[in-house]
Each structure stands twice: as C-alpha cells, then as structure tokens.
Amino acid sequence: MIVRTTEEITGTERDVADKDWRSKRIILAGDGVGFSFHETTINANSVSEFHYRHHVEAVWVVEGSGTLTDLETGRDYPLRAGTMYLLDGHERHRVVCDDQLRMLCVFNPPVTGNEVHDETGSYPKAV
Questions:
Q1: Under 8 Å between Cβ of 27 and 37
Q2: Average pLDDT, the chain
Q3: Distance (Å, rounded) from C-alpha 93 to C-alpha 85?
C-alpha cells in the first residue's frame, strides 16, 4: 500500500514547476503500478501548449476555469470543475487559464518524474 500527501511532496523532487504550471507527482513509474498520478495547477492568465506524443493523459478539473483547444482540429472546450478530458489520440493542445486551474492527471505509460517538456511540448518516450 502507498499512502502519500501533497503536503509531504511539496518542495521535493516530485514537485515540478514551470513559469505557468506546477505538477505534484504523487505516483511515478518507480512505484511500479503502470500509471502516474499528478496534481497539476496552472496559473491564472496563462497559456500553455502541450503534446504528449508518447503518453495518454486523462485530466479531471477540480477547480478553476479556462479553455482547452485541440490544436489538431481547432475545436475549443470550456474547462471548469467537473470537466474531464482524455488525450487518447496524442492531440497537440493548448490550455488558456482564466482562473487558476487545479487538475488531477493520470499518465500512461507512467512518467518517471524527471521529464521536462521538449520544444514540441512533449515528454520523451518512456524507456
């Protein structure tokens, strides 16, 4: 059994931040369960682009508001508490954050915790 709190993760190597977002990586590949689980916050009044070419990501919005844009189709989706989106087609996407978003995210395959977004907004292929 694994039990962790976001409080104990804060300020550790599992607490990864960029200028516009922060990811508290609660479950990682090293935990050996086949997925990773994160609490991610995106700052208000920010725009972030991502493209997970090697991972499927499910996202559950628990706080805040913004807009998700599928950059493959140009379609916009409102984001607010209770919204879920699944990037099952490795879609390039943009998140425009109006009010700080707090989201719970699952990645498959799991991330190791050391990944950084490359120039395309993607994480490297899991090894």
A1: yes
A2: 91
A3: 11
Which listed CATH number (3.90.180.10, 2.60.120.10, 3.30.540.10, 3.60.110.10) goes with 20-108?
Answer: 2.60.120.10
> Which residues, other chains included, contact 100 with Cβ-Cβ below 8 Å and sequence gap of 6+?
41, 42, 43, 44, 63, 64
pTM over 0.85: yes
Identify the residue whose tokens are 């140009």.
74
Confidence (pLDDT) at 66: 98
Indicate if the pLDDT at residue 79 is higher than 60.
Answer: yes
In this structure, what token pair is assigned to residue 10?
A: 């804060």
Domain ranges of the chain: 20-108
